[in-house]
Amino acid sequence: MRPLTLRFGGLRSYRAEQEIDFTDVTLMAIVGDTGAGKSSILEALSFALYGGCTWDNRSSKGLIADGGDGTARAELTFQARNKVWKVTRTTSAGGSPPSVHRLEGVTDGSLVEGSRAVGDAVQKLVGLDHQAFLKAVVLPQGRFQELLQAKDTDRTAILKNVLGLDQLAEVRQQAVTTRERLEPLLQDLKHRRGLLLDDPANSIVDAEARRSAAAQQVTALEQLQRTVREARTAGDNAARKAKEHRTAASRLMNRLPDDIERRYHDLAGLDSRLTDETATVGKQLEDADDDAERLNATLTAADLAGTGIAGVTEALTTFKLLPNQLAELETQRRDIEEEKSAIGVEQAALVDRERDHVLLVTKAEDSEAEVEKAKTVHTNAVSELERCRTLLADARQAARTAKTSAASVGEIQKDLNDRKTDFNDASLAFSHADDAVKEARKYLEAMRRANSAAHAAAVSKAGEPCPICVRPLPGDFVAPATAETTQAARNLTKAEKRAGTAHTALTRAEVANETVRNRFEEAVKAAKTANSERDETYSAAAAALGDFLLEQDEESILAEVRSGAEQTAVTLEQVEAEAKAAHDAMTEGKARLRHDKEALAKRSENLVKLTLALERRRGQVLATYEVVPDQYRLHAEPTAEAIERGTKKAQQRLDELNSIKAKLDGVQKVIKSLRRQSKKLAEDRRASVELPVAELGRLVQSIADRTIGPAEMTGLAAAAQRPTPLSITTDARWALDVLGTVEGLVQRCLREAQVLEQNASTARNDADAKLAGVGITDESELEHRLTDTRTDVRQAQRDRAEAVAQEPICAELDARISATQPVVQSLRELAGLLADGKFPAAVVKRRQRALLGLASERLRSVTKERFAFSNDFRIVDGHTGQPRDVRTLSGGETFLASLALALALVELTSRGGGRVEALFLDEGFGSLDSNVLSEALEALTRQARDGRLVTVISHMRDVAENFDNVLLVTKKPGGSRAHWLSADERDQLITDEMTAGLLT
């Protein structure tokens, strides 16, 4: 695994996104101050590959930067297994946005997603789990020596992964998995083969022989069965026919009646008597029908003319109703006329009221106009009152302001006089203090002149040249001084302090005086302005109110203006009351007028409806009258006389029709009685003659029909069919003929049945003889033997078909078993050879010796041949010749041993096409002297020459002197930042570090 580019952000001290390109870099250094964020780059690499941090693989929450957006991101592009991959991971403090775990194949376009799936894929590509990665590739700060000091089991697991020996475990696992997958299949093949025939080819030959023998036996038995069956059939047919003959004879004899001739004679006499009675009743019924038809025709003709019973009855009903209907029509007509007259009167009154309402509207509108005028006058009066009130308030405020300003001028004048006095006093005090300073300074100078030598050395120190003789002053030199000079200097200092205090007081008094004078000038100016405003506001108020005194109260000054405003309010109230009364009268009149007009309109509309209804009702009455037949409607109009005469005439006609109807009813009663007699005779004839004759005919016909079968069996003629037309006489003769035919057929059937029974007995004896000839008792035994033989044939056929079907299957199974069984045995042997403790252990041991040999070479190189590795990872000390535990080494020695082991591991994996193509070393160089450091860096350089990425991380900036590629990490308030140094920047960094070293 070789990193190409690393992009990360929101991770530990890196709040902003950072990208590092390792593509063209082999040997590099990451330098920066302690805490700048160098090790965080390794954390980003670890998080991108394994989703965890170097100190906790189970969680990555500790990587999230403080003060960032709450999400740590890392994206690593790397090369592994001759392909380029890109792994992306994110994690958030609160779970939103959700974490991302994605591995993309840049070369082949493959994609793996999900934390566990990506972790498994990365581990397979890198060949190391997270812990092994931290011991062999990325050596974090404080964990550099873990591979060196690891337990044997842990070190062996790491070496197996790094050196690719874990592939042997994968091969063994694949062998076990394949064997476990194939063994059930092999057992299934064997089980399936065990369920089939041992030798399908021999089974085919044996089944064919059995089938042929059984088929020949079936043919012989089937021929015998057909022969016996034919004999049995012949006997059965003869017996059946004999039975049929006897049955036919028996059926014919059982159906023959004894008294057919007598029964036909009695029925003929009864039929003659009933026929005569029926003819007599028929003649009487015909005469009665003629009378009924004549009377009914009379009534029907009257109905068609509209003068029948129904028409006359309806006319009488109409005549009875018409007087009341006509009276109602007259009453309604009078009511309509009265309503029409009343509506006319009210319409005239409405016209007068509408004229009066127009006057009310005009009065209301005039009142509204007066109200608006009064409102305007009142509003103006109120506005004038408020204006006067405002003018008065402004005049009084201006007077108060002028008075206040005048008082302020007096107060400030007094304060100004006080400040002038203070200033004069301070000026005098400062003058006295200044004179005292001058006197003190004059006295001090006189004292110094009197002691000039001591004064010249007053500022000299031990070791400096003497101001007099220029020779160095002794180490215990103290400047000489006299008591008078010292006291004079002290007096001058005190005088200067008092003068300074006096000067400060003078300055303060001068500032205070100037401040008060400015205030006084401003107060005088403000007083003049206030007096001017007072005069202007009073003039404006006097123009509106007349002359007045400001001391007067407001009510007396504004009394006249307020009185005018109040009078306009009273006037407005009176006008509004009059306008409201006019408006109410107009509204009320309008409402009553609208209500009355609507009511009158409804009455007019109702009058029209009543008029139309009267016309419709009158039309209905006339239509009812016109329905009355013309014979009874003596006048065109339904007058009282016409109704009375029509009623009398219709009643006479109704009496005539009722008389005819009564006669018709009597005739119809006679007809009904005769029809009952005729029906009774017909029923008696049917029950006593027709039904018995029909029943007797059916009996004879059934006997005649029964002769058809026996006639066909014997060859004689069957009985004749019933003659037509039907009559009792012809049926009697036909019955005697049928009885004679039956007698002849019975005799013939009995004779032929005897002959057929003899033939049946002979056929049965022949069948028994054929069965006995082959040793079979009866047909049942023959059927059983034939069934068994056929079963043998079918079984042989099934056996042959099964063998034929199994033959290719058995061949295929045998071939697959032969091919699979050696593979399973080989896989079992391979898994056993690759088990831990055998072949892999031997390979690990050999590779470990090679690793320790390479590590010893590098360790001897950097320790001047002093240290080397023993086979158990202990250190052989060249001074003593004895092995030492690695934990007894010093810090620098431990670093060199760990470095030698890491470099040897990288070189060994490269020789075998391994997967470690990068090495990250975090700190440890500070414990080396310059010579050892040079040897260590040379060893790292040799590893980088082969294209590997070797990275050294150190807080010592002078390490950059040994690297062309330097990544500088700095930390600012906004977070850490890493950038590649140019050649000039690298040289400047080294120069600055050297300069800092010289200064400290």
TrEMBL record:
A Gene Ontology annotation in the biological process aspect, one of them, is: double-strand break repair
Instruction: Tell me the domain of life.
Output: Bacteria
The residues forming a coiled coil are: 204-241, 285-346, 657-684, 746-799
Where is each Rad50/SbcC-type AAA domain found?
7-202
Q: Which keywords, in A-to-Z order, does the entry hold?
A: Coiled coil, Exonuclease, Hydrolase, Nuclease
**GO MF annotation terms:** ATP hydrolysis activity; exonuclease activity
Which Pfam families does the annotation name?
AAA_23 (PF13476), SbcC_Walker_B (PF13558)
State the InterPro entries in the record. Answer: P-loop_NTPase (IPR027417), Rad50/SbcC_AAA (IPR038729)
Instruction: Say yes or no: keyword Coiled coil present.
Output: yes
As for family, the record states:
Belongs to the SMC family. SbcC subfamily.
Known partners and oligomeric status: Heterodimer of SbcC and SbcD.
This protein is called what? Nuclease SbcCD subunit C
Q: Which source organism?
A: Amycolatopsis pretoriensis
